[in-house]
């Protein structure tokens, strides 16, 4: 029996569209146990308890790549990462499935090879990289090969997530993006991502506020997030450093100066029409691990 622990992640972080990611101490656990034949999936909604389950399809694909016979398998999922909320639930499933398969096959894959398989399945590395390696990451893909680097992040920054009671799929959030963008919008993001990475390392509130803005995706996606403007106004009024859409949404992530920020906004957020869970998340520096 094998158990893999994979952290939740946020991606994009403002200007770092499909590039930046950050791991948090909020986890999914995937336990793999060989059985005589077939598949058995436990711990998730019934509609996911079949051979289309993302953990299983990632597990199976990896074994096929390794030319290792796919055994009968029982997969038990225990997850604190909300589904379709912009906190990397699909990346966690993929990483868990690929790592589980690698161990079943005798661990022939390096971490970089695992990264490539995961990226091939997901289609972009921004959530996969921090889920696998931990911390703050920037990633690129060149000729089908993903590469990632890790950056330091100041320990005095607090990340406060507002997780709503409605879902938003990545596919739906990508549909609203334009096929072309103005040159000036590309320059806007390039300049800010470079400054943002250093500002996050130094914990520079002013530079974080100035650089954590975007022209490529957030202005198109925020219309899909109910009460976006109301939440943003409440958070800014109570002294957040910056707010960004976590991944493709609908979770909204604040960077704050103090851990008590969540208590400052709690009353007003609770009085909104939709139900929002407020949670301050610590950074995970280890990434996915075998327990």
TrEMBL record:
Domain of life: Bacteria
Residues covered by the GHMP kinase N-terminal domain: 53-135
Pfam families: GHMP_kinases_C, GHMP_kinases_N
GO annotation terms (biological process): threonine biosynthetic process
Keyword annotations: Amino-acid biosynthesis, ATP-binding, Cytoplasm, Kinase, Nucleotide-binding, Threonine biosynthesis, Transferase
Residues covered by the GHMP kinase C-terminal domain: 196-260
CC per GO annotation: cytoplasm
Pathway info: Amino-acid biosynthesis; L-threonine biosynthesis; L-threonine from L-aspartate: step 4/5
Signal peptide location: none
Binding locations of ATP: 82-92
GO molecular function: ATP binding; homoserine kinase activity
Xref: Gene3D superfamilies: 3.30.230.10, GHMP kinase, C-terminal domain
Record flagged with keyword Nucleotide-binding: yes
Swiss-Prot/TrEMBL catalytic activity: L-homoserine + ATP = O-phospho-L-homoserine + ADP + H(+)
Enzyme Commission numbers on file: 2.7.1.39
Compartments where found: Cytoplasm
Stated family: Belongs to the GHMP kinase family. Homoserine kinase subfamily.
Function: Catalyzes the ATP-dependent phosphorylation of L-homoserine to L-homoserine phosphate.
Protein name: Homoserine kinase
């Amino acid at each position: 029996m094998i158990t893999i622990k994979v952290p939740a992640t946020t991606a994009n972080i403002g200007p770092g569209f499909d590039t930046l990611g950050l791991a948090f101490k909020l986890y999914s656990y995937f336990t793999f146990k060989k059985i005589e034949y077939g598949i058995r999936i436990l711990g998730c909604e019934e509609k996911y308890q079949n051979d289309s389950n993302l953990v299983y399809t990632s597990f199976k694909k990896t074994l096929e790549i390794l030319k290792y016979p796919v055994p009968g398998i029982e997969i038990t999922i225990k997850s604190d990462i909300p589904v379709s909320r912009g906190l990397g639930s699909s990346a966690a499933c993929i990483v868990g499935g690929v790592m589980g398969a690698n161990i079943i096959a005798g661990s022939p894959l390096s971490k970089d090879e695992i990264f490539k398989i995961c990226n091939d399945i997901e289609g972009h590395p921004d959530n996969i990289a921090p889920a696998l390696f931990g911390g703050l990451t920037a990633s690129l893909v060149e000729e089908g090969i993903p590469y990632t680097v890790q950056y330091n992040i100041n320990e005095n920054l607090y990340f406060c997530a507002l997780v709503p009671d409605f879902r938003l799929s990545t596919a739906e959030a990508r549909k609203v993006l334009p096929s072309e963008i103005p040159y000036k919008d590309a320059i806007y993001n390039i300049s800010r991502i470079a400054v943002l990475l250093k500002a996050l390392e130094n914990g520079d509130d002013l530079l974080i506020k100035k650089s954590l803005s975007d022209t490529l995706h957030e202005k198109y996606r925020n219309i899909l997030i109910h009460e976006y403007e109301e939440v943003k106004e409440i958070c800014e009024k109570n002294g957040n450093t910056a707010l960004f859409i976590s991944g493709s949404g609908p979770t909204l992530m604040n960077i704050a100066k103090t851990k008590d920020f969540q208590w400052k906004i709690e009353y007003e957020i609770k009085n909104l029409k939709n139900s929002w869970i407020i949670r301050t998340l610590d950074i995970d520096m280890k990434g996915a691990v075998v327990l």
